[in-house]
Amino acid sequence: MAKNVLVTGGAGYIGSHTVLQLLLGGFRVVVVDNLDNSSRTALDRVRELAGEHGPNLSFHEFDLRDKPALEKLFASTKFDAVIHFAGLKAVGESVQKPLLYYNNNLIGTITLLEVMDAHGCKKLVFSSSATVYGWPKEVPCTEDFPVCAMNPYGRTKLFIEEICRDVYRADPEWKIMLLRYFNPVGAHPSGCIGEDPRGIPNNLMPFVQQVAVGRRPALTVYGTDYSTKDGTGVRDYIHVVDLADGHIAALQKLDEPGIGCEVYNLGTGKGTSVLEMVAAFEKASGKKIPLVMAGRRPGDAEIVYASTENAERELNWKTKYGIEEMCRDQWNWASKNPYGYGSPDSTD
Ligand code: NAD
Ligand code: UFG
């Protein structure tokens, strides 16, 4: 019997890619999303890409904090597990509007856990983040490194990790995977789905992509005086399809005996600088990306990349793609959809 998986935030960037991999892997998928930072079109395209598996996807548009709506859904469908992506994720905005972030991310998660508990669904995969490593003292980051919060967004990730640990301590029937993503980039190789941030992008590759299609004049490079190979910040960029596959591996792991509340890094284990990433994108796209060198962005770490040992050994998962493929697929998506899922008038 095909397994039923609830995916919260499944219309978003990582969610839509994961929903596609789930469908192709034979799962039945129910998405809940309030479309606050995403588009219904993403799921229409996922359905198409999934071919004969497309009918195994259903979508419910509501906010996770709407407990009666969630109750109703759980009363009508028995879920084997939940993958929980839904959340707000813009670091700068979280500093300006901390209560919005605490309300959305924490209340959303607590409501979900309460309804899951009430319906005896106790298997959860949660989107945590490498942001919990802050400015790590050394690299690669292993899962047992000390954790901290650099901003309200990061603090919601830390709090939710702790909430999950407490929920498991109180009831060991729970099985929980806390996945700490490094820097997801790229898009599905079809170029039909990808990242489509609202407003001015905060993250490197969405910004680079908008420069390449002529929506922004130049990329501002934040910091050229770091102790790195070329002075710019170093990160662990991971292809979003590899990341999506990591969720399937985590779901499978939930069925193994002896699983409690576990934490895994999902990254490649390789560090790439801003300038290296820009050069790789220029090569993949044939576009010149004009640069404006600037000072460091407050709160940014110097070098962050993952130790991938635990995920490779215990989840039996490792990444397949390098930065060439990430940039190739990012450009394929960008050139086919220069305005994402919208039109030139629907975005700034
Ligand atoms: P995204 O914004 O594209 O997707 C999140 C989705 O959740 C959106 O579709 C949004 O509409 C939905 N959503 C938000 N609040 C909701 C609510 N209260 N009820 C229902 N739906 C809601 O972001 P993403 O990049 O796909 O990230 C997914 C998850 O991974 C997030 O939790 C994010 O914090 C985490 N994460 C992302 C990154 C990254 O760089 N993209 C890195 C680490 C962790
Ligand atoms: N950068 C620029 N110019 C830009 C944007 C970014 O130079 O316009 C640089 C940053 O200074 C950094 C690198 O590009 O050195 C990567 O920056 P991102 O904003 O793309 O990614 P971060 O590692 O800073 O943070 C992201 C998410 C966090 C998440 C973290 C780890 O924004 O929420 O990845 O997953 F926690």
TrEMBL record:
One BP annotation, GO: galactose metabolic process
Keyword Lipid metabolism belongs to the record: no
Enzyme type, top EC level: isomerase
Cofactor: NAD(+)
Domain NAD(P)-binding: 6-329
SUPFAM superfamilies: NAD(P)-binding Rossmann-fold domains
Name of the protein described by the UniProt record: UDP-glucose 4-epimerase
A GO term, aspect molecular function: UDP-glucose 4-epimerase activity
Similarity section: Belongs to the NAD(P)-dependent epimerase/dehydratase family.
